[in-house]
Every structure is written in C-alpha cells, then in structure tokens.
Structure prediction request, 122 residues.
Amino acid sequence: ADLVVARQEDSDEGVPLALRCVRRGLPWLGRKFEIPETISDPLSGLRAYRVGLLKRAMRENGGEPLLRHSGWAGSLELLAAVAPHTRRVEETPSEVRYDRRARRSRQTLWKAARDYLDLLRR
Prediction:
C-alpha cells in the first residue's frame, strides 16, 4: 500500500471537544479536498506514507512546501496533497485511549476552527 491509515474507533467519551466538533464538520470540509473514499477517518494522525508517494507529491508541487499548517489542518493538507498519487490505501483499526494521556490536548476548538477556515480559503 502507498498509504496506511489507522482508523480510530472511539466513542465521544473523553474525546477533546475540538476533535469532536471538527469530525462532525468533516463531511462538509471533505468536499473541498479529494480524499480517497477508502479512508473513513481523514483526521487520523496515525499514517504511514510510502516514501515514493511523498516524493511524487513534492515533485508535482514544483518545489513549494506541501504544508502551510500544523496540527490537524496540516495532517488533512498532507493527505489531500498525496491523494492524487495514491494507488492503494489500506486502513487498520486503532483504539484511542484518551484516559491514558499524560497531558491535555494543546489543540483548542478555536484554533482548530481557525485552521480549517484558513484551509477552506485556500
């Protein structure tokens, strides 16, 4: 596979508010980006990219940076950048344990909303 995505299977229990809101709004955001249909969780940060896939995306981008954002917005931006070059995408289940986190998420609802609105303006 060119891209392997860990599909996070979790309930809303313990999930940060920003992540819940962004995931609920994702179908609306997803219309702007061409994301492979086989990816059920485009916000998953657990992905493995084949090096050749990243090289093709960078080459087509003409030397410009692939990412302008960090965090979830950057993750979605990278996924959208490599999507046209993927031949095969695999998903694997992954359990998220928010109760085992050492610290609270640094991502706030307002930062996530600002980043995604900025992505939509692109």
About this structure: The chain has a mean pLDDT of 80. Strands lie at 3-8, 47-49, 89-94.
